[in-house]
Design brief:
It contains 13 helices and two strands, in the order αααααααααββαααα. By secondary structure, it is mainly α. The chain has one domain (2-26, 70-269). Strands 1-2 form a two-stranded antiparallel sheet.
Length: 272
């Protein structure tokens, strides 16, 4: 009976999360509708008529012009840099010294394969059915022929490309305002909307529904740390190269993140 109760609880939690995800998309659709906008400029409107109202719309899209959370963000940025200097970079450097690059790249592919559920779900939420199906096919091929995802025969042998996606992008896809720029401790640059999306993506992880809650958090935390170390080991000069050319490193990271997200959304809407 106890097993049955836990199973029902976990199933109910999964249904609730999916309903919340769908509700967020519906909110985005309503927010973006002409009736709701009531006279606002079109998102991609141009010409002189958009000159007055285009700036607020662009500010909403970028979520950063005034950077209202700058005092908090700057402190978290400094914290993340110190954490990288004192912990992550030294550990990643030591790991890189003992693990060949090919091995670390394979580990990165493994983590990427494990995290296919949010990619599949968010492509589905955006009605990108071919891409969602491609993610399922990639997972099946790479999990079997690719030895749990350490190799990528789906791409090399079958030409199935990965279609990166997340719930933050889904909300942006439906024109939900991004909110202010936000620097998250341990995680890095984000926005309010992207941070919400990150939480939704995390709870799409199947391990939360097949393990006790405490164990799923422990496994998830360990997986996040291992993935961060592996990624950093493959990008040891990432911050050093940025700091060399940027007068304002905080601003450079902020601009790079926001521009990258805008390009990702544009590609999604263009069907790429």
């Amino acid at each position: 009976m106890e097993y049955t109760s836990d199973t029902r609880r976990d199933s109910a939690a999964l249904v609730l999360i999916l309903l919340l995800a769908l509700l967020s998309i519906l909110v985005g659709l309503v927010t973006a509708s002409p009736a709701f906008a009531a006279g606002a400029a079109a998102p991609n409107g141009g010409g002189s008529s958009g000159a007055a109202s285009g700036a607020p719309d662009q500010a909403l899209e970028q979520g950063v012009e005034s950077d209202p959370l700058a005092p908090f963000n700057e402190k978290m940025f400094t914290f993340n840099l110190k954490l990288d200097d004192w912990v992550l970079h030294p550990v990643a450097s030591g790991y890189a010294d003992i693990a060949p690059e090919a091995f670390r790249q394979a580990v990165g592919r493994f983590f990427d394969n494990v995290e296919f559920v949010p990619r599949f779900a968010n492509n589905l939420f955006q009605l990108r059915l071919a891409q969602a199906g491609g993610e399922v096919a990639r997972f099946g091929i790479n999990t079997t022929l690719g030895l749990a995802g350490f190799f990528d025969p789906a791409d090399k042998w079958f030409g199935l490309k990965e279609h990166p996606d997340d719930f933050g992008l889904t909300l942006r896809y439906y024109d939900v305002p991004t909110g202010p720029y936000l620097m998250l401790p341990f995680i890095g640059p984000s926005t309010i909307t992207d941070a919400v999306g990150l939480g939704v993506d995390d709870f799409m992880d199947p391990e939360y529904y097949f393990m006790p809650l405490w164990m799923s958090f422990a496994v998830g935390g360990g997986e996040t740390v291992a993935e961060a170390i592996n990624y950093r080991s493959l990008h040891l000069n990432q911050f050093e190269e940025a700091d060399r050319y940027a007068i304002d490193l905080y601003g450079a990271v902020q601009d790079a993140y926001l521009q990258t997200r805008r390009v990702q959304v544009r590609h999604l809407k263009e069907g790429k």
